[in-house]
Amino acid sequence: MMKFRFRRQGNDPQREKIKQELFAFNKTVEHGFPHQPCALAFDPQLQLMAVGTKSGAMKIYGSPGVEFTGLHRDAAAVAQIHFLQGQGRLLSLLDDNTLHLWELGGASRDRGGAKSEGVVYLEEKRNYSLLGRPGLESCSASRVTVLLLLRSCDLLCVGTEGGGIHFLDLPRLSLRDNQSLLLDQVMQSVPEDYRCGKSLGPVESLQEHPKQPGKILIGYSRGLVVLWDLSTCNAEHMFLGKQQLESLVWERSGSSFVSSHSDGGYSVWAVASGNTYTHQPVSSSIPYGPFPCKAINKILWRTIQSGCPVVLYSGGMPRASYGDRHCVTIQQDKQHVTLDFTSRVIDFFTVHTTDLEHDYDDPKALVVLLEEELVVIDLLTTGWPSVPPPYLAPLHSSAITTSCHLDNVPAKLWDRLAAAGNSQGAQPGVRHAHGSWPICGGKNLAPPPRQQELLLTGHEDGTVRFWNVSAVAMTPLYKLSTANVFHTDCDPNDDPLDPTNDPEALQEEEWPPFRKVGCFDPYSDDPRLGIQKISLCKYSCRLVVAGTAGQVIVLGLSDEWSDHTVDVSTVDLLQDREGFTWKGHDRLEPRASPAPFPPGFQPLVLVQALPPASVTSVMLHAEWNLVAFGTSHGFGLFDYHRRTAVLARCTLHPNDSLAMEGPLSRVKSLKKSLRQSFRRIRKSRVSGKKRPIPTPTSKIQEANAALADQEEVAPVQRRIEPRSADDSLSGVVRCLCFADTYLRDGTHHGPTLWAGTNSGSVYAYALEVPGVGSGRGRPGGEGSGCVEAVLGKEIQLMHRAPVVSVCVLDGRGKPLPEPYQASLDLATAPDMTNPHSVLIASEEQLKVFSLPKVGAKTKFKLTAHEGCRVRRVAMVTVCSTAQEDYSETSLVCLTNLGDLHLFNVPALRPQVRYDCIRKEDISGIASCVFTRNGQGFYLISPSEYQRFSLSAKVITEPLCTVELERPLETHISDDAAIPLRANGTHRNQAEGLTEDPQCGLSSPPPLSPLDSPLSMADVSLDTTGELTVEDVRDFLTSVDEVENNLRNITEEDGCSLGVLIT
């Protein structure tokens, strides 16, 4: 046999230019709630809020769409943040005892073909490390405990653990020599009987006098409070407290202040002229006494013109009864509310009047930063209700298990979802205010979104949340709960009422007067409720959600309340197959009696797969009224209009006993899988060391290799070990696809169903759908006969690699349109005159087959060329920045190494490659979802999505500005001059990284940090339900696998121009 090899063609300059106009990788914005927040600050002049995290990230928020993000060079936790009010500057204190000065700077950027002027970004300007003074203070004594920024913003007071106070000039961050206030100077003014040989302890609080600049209140841990005059450097007044101090706050007039203590009480002290010492406070109170209480960590005292002052404090709960509660108390005269949260209180502040000309604070809102969410309370409305946040919603209020994206959402569906979301409000028993969002600084310069986009997230508690991701701010739109379809331990209809609306609760006078606030609820009534797959048809308003216990629910959108019983159908995927016994969890018990369903998506039919294993794939075709679903045992097809099962196919291998154990045996299965993986590695190493026996054929190969050495060598390929047919979980159905194409012959097309499994098998069924092609109407129309399914083709991939995706291409090589798109003239009709083809993506390669004969047309061996495995596949359409009417459809692949590969279709020529996710971030790779317009989302923490774009034109990122009292330092940028950040965080910019399509993929871009401020943080691996044993196996054995592949490089394709004899 003779093979002819030709030299590769050089790069086409015209094609390279087109690629640069089409593709550009950008990490744009982080949606959701910051992971592990630990610091909070507010600028009342600019109306901006700052949040610091344990990973060193700095995030600034204003009005919706106004966001700035920065990242400290060292991954240390942010201990404190303070704004230089009105200047767009802020100070951060890290737990490594370093101070950092940040600034909002201006830039002009050209992005997506449009130039944006006045854009502001966040960057670090200076830093300072406070070291101990030799002979005076040890390192621990110099540790910073509290910061005070004077109103003049030119002086920073730094309190330390050793009791000393240092002063730094701003904004230079330079220490004032010989002006530090040491503990010895303060002790000289303390009465002898108060000293008692005891230290005053660390500086706990520093507060500037509200009316007399230059005077500060210094609170020491032991209880001593000193009013210090900075101009004369002496103690003007001393308040000899005897209880351990936690915090201080001034009353607005400066005539008194309040101190909170470790015994759960607070005291009011009068600042009177004349006496140097005050021994007793004016009043003291332990609100939740007399039994021992926890400390009041922070207290605020806000005056109101129309009534009594408002006292707000965190902590103070009775230690024995409610010591584990996370609370903030609001008191005003006889009104008393204890806000009860489900996560730890980090910090809080009030939005109030700060103008010195006003005599009262008149607070408008209370903002509480919790460990898992942000809660805002309206203080102007009776009852102090909460305000729904337009951003920073806790995505992980229940753990995210799956996600789904929809673009170009029709206006009618959008309005109906918004109306349903508004009608359901928030959680039962929690009242919400209708006032405006109090954090409203900055100006959003981003143009209005071109289309409405939805991100659907499935959660562990059986809920599906709909998020508006059309712009930078990720806003909750609607929440669907599936728990009321089943009998559970906690009936959602029996939720407790709001105590303020319950007369019996009012008569009992519960103390403390708790009120549940916030929506973070990490606990699930039943883990079987978890949502695993979602499919939504935006034109027919049909939704399918599938869960952990084999439940598949078909829902329709309704604008009215409904009380009805949900129809239930079962589909046995084992079909009475002998030798298999399900050892996992039981199915959920459906509710037999009618249940109330609020406006929104309401269940039409429940399809229960048996055995009740977790659903691994689902696909909806609303135009045919069909839903297909797959589990680890097989796949089924259901006609939800006629309520009949069409097909049940078992995909289990005779040795696939692991699939019958269920998720409760996951530890055992993981061990077994890893053991088998290591055995294969050892086997391949041993086989690689064996020397081949010299044969005439091997001599010919040596001659061919010598000839190849004289020519240009093509890319080498790694040898791929075929997978065993009896591998565990080989019957898992990974993907499903509906298509109207040619399967039986080349002249008649019709509905088909495609299913791909973990063992590399693809099943293609020809469907007989009554009414299709003969004027069938909209869903719900009457039709005669039943849907029938006949096996048309069965494909077995050579190496038995799991099938990740199946996509049918029309005669032009384009993906078929979604259901209803062609019939409603919303998309170009598919080409049905030329032959179709099917693109099958496995974990190891991409391959295009012709239809109906299923003959191989072209392929790309991704694992052989790159040593990686495919994890996610999608078809995306990217538009050119130079030509409005030019676009290309490409195939994007995310691999287990976290990089993105783009190929054109159907030729499968590599276009570009980008580094996207760290290969160690298994959870992020498993959670990635692509959009049709070339964007994507993946979890960088349990509560945050990172958004990225592959399109040079479609980019959703913050474009905002802030009016400052100082001039902006403006930079001119063309995306390559100023630091390229995802609005502040480090980002890879790899535009135009291409290579010749015939020679493989481009080389990786220069090494740089992979954007996320959580790159060194602990992120749990159970944030998505799609994390598989294969993901963990790839991560643990990646190093050995690479070494093994490099040893087994073949020389089959190692030659170019010449004649090879084989």
TrEMBL record:
<keyword id="KW-0963">Cytoplasm</keyword>
<dbReference type="GO" id="GO:0030866">
    <property type="term" value="P:cortical actin cytoskeleton organization"/>
</dbReference>
<feature type="region of interest" description="Disordered">
    <location>
        <begin position="990"/>
        <end position="1014"/>
    </location>
</feature>
<dbReference type="Pfam" id="PF08366">
    <property type="entry name" value="LLGL"/>
</dbReference>
<dbReference type="GO" id="GO:0045159">
    <property type="term" value="F:myosin II binding"/>
</dbReference>
<dbReference type="InterPro" id="IPR000664">
    <property type="entry name" value="Lethal2_giant"/>
</dbReference>
<keyword id="KW-0268">Exocytosis</keyword>
<protein>
    <submittedName>
        <fullName>LLGL scribble cell polarity complex component 1</fullName>
    </submittedName>
</protein>
<feature type="domain" description="Lethal giant larvae homologue 2">
    <location>
        <begin position="285"/>
        <end position="385"/>
    </location>
</feature>
<dbReference type="InterPro" id="IPR015943">
    <property type="entry name" value="WD40/YVTN_repeat-like_dom_sf"/>
</dbReference>
<keyword id="KW-0472">Membrane</keyword>
<keyword id="KW-0853">WD repeat</keyword>
<dbReference type="GO" id="GO:0008593">
    <property type="term" value="P:regulation of Notch signaling pathway"/>
</dbReference>
<dbReference type="GO" id="GO:0006887">
    <property type="term" value="P:exocytosis"/>
</dbReference>
<dbReference type="GO" id="GO:0012505">
    <property type="term" value="C:endomembrane system"/>
</dbReference>
<dbReference type="GO" id="GO:0030864">
    <property type="term" value="C:cortical actin cytoskeleton"/>
</dbReference>
<comment type="similarity">
    <text>Belongs to the WD repeat L(2)GL family.</text>
</comment>
<dbReference type="GO" id="GO:0006893">
    <property type="term" value="P:Golgi to plasma membrane transport"/>
</dbReference>
<dbReference type="InterPro" id="IPR013905">
    <property type="entry name" value="Lgl_C_dom"/>
</dbReference>
<dbReference type="GO" id="GO:0051294">
    <property type="term" value="P:establishment of spindle orientation"/>
</dbReference>
<dbReference type="InterPro" id="IPR036322">
    <property type="entry name" value="WD40_repeat_dom_sf"/>
</dbReference>
<dbReference type="Pfam" id="PF08596">
    <property type="entry name" value="Lgl_C"/>
</dbReference>
<dbReference type="GO" id="GO:0032878">
    <property type="term" value="P:regulation of establishment or maintenance of cell polarity"/>
</dbReference>
<keyword id="KW-0677">Repeat</keyword>
<feature type="domain" description="Lethal giant larvae (Lgl)-like C-terminal">
    <location>
        <begin position="837"/>
        <end position="983"/>
    </location>
</feature>
<dbReference type="InterPro" id="IPR013577">
    <property type="entry name" value="LLGL2"/>
</dbReference>
<dbReference type="GO" id="GO:0005886">
    <property type="term" value="C:plasma membrane"/>
</dbReference>
<dbReference type="GO" id="GO:0005096">
    <property type="term" value="F:GTPase activator activity"/>
</dbReference>
